[in-house]
Amino acid sequence: MSKTYYAILKITPWANEMDVRRAYRDLSKLYHPDTTQLPKEEAVEYFRQINEAYATLSNAERRSNYDRLIQFSRFQYRSNAQDDQVFDNGIKSKLKMPKNLQTVNDDGLPTERPLSGGELFALLMIGVTLVFCLVLAFLVAWLRGDSLLPQAIT
Predict the structure, then answer these.
(1) How confident is the model at residue 47, as a pLDDT?
(2) Neighbours of 6 (CB within 10 A)
(3) Is the dihedral of CA 139, 141, 143, 147 positive or negative?
(4) What would the pLDDT profile of 129-145 be if each residue is shown by its tens digit?
(5) 20: closest CA among 52, 47, 58?
(6) Measured distance between the N- and C-terminal CA atoms of the chain, rounded to whole angstroms
(7) How far, in Å, CA of 70 to CA of 85, rounded?
(8) What is d(CA 105, CA 119) in angstroms, rounded to the nearest whole number?
(9) Can you tell me the distance from the alpha carbon of 92 to that of 12, in angstroms, rounded to the nearest whole number?
(10) Residue 32, CA distances (Å) to 5, 24, 45, 49 in order
(11) Taking phi first (over 0 means left), then psi (-120 to 50 degrees means alpha), and beta for anything else, what does residue 151 get?
């Protein structure tokens, strides 16, 4: 397998069901054998690959099995165990957990997922909340007349 199904549909492994469907629809319109300018044999082969990729990635169970087959994990974890595993379609594979998400050949899988705008905003809000709580604690202690520094230091 030279290209992953994700690379065939030109999507990332984190794409949701709507992204998979949208990519399939756009590519099938572009490469359908009746509407494309490509030679008939090439168009039929590429259209077959698009259909196969969509059939696998649109079904949650098949997608999960496929992700295990290409050694992709939405959660970055490592396992030292390397076991032989037989998948539903009869393929026996020696699983090796990659050090990161980068594969040997550049098949479209990203090495890291960048933080989204919402995640960055959440981190900012956590930081602001932490600073606000510290300032509030010192302000309440100062207003009560408590010593801000221990007696041993002063």
Answers:
(1) 93
(2) 24
(3) negative
(4) 999 999 999 899 889 98
(5) 58
(6) 71
(7) 13
(8) 30
(9) 25
(10) 18, 11, 10, 11
(11) alpha
* 5-21: pLDDT as tens digits: 999 999 988 888 999 99
d(CA 18, CA 89): 26
Long-range pairs for 27-36 at CB < 8 Å and ≥24 separation? 28/54
Q: Strands (DSSP E) along 56-144, which ranges?
A: 84-86, 92-94
pLDDT digit string, tens, across residues 26-74 = 999 888 988 888 898 999 999 999 999 999 999 989 988 988 888 876 6
How does strand 84-86 pair with strand 92-94?
antiparallel
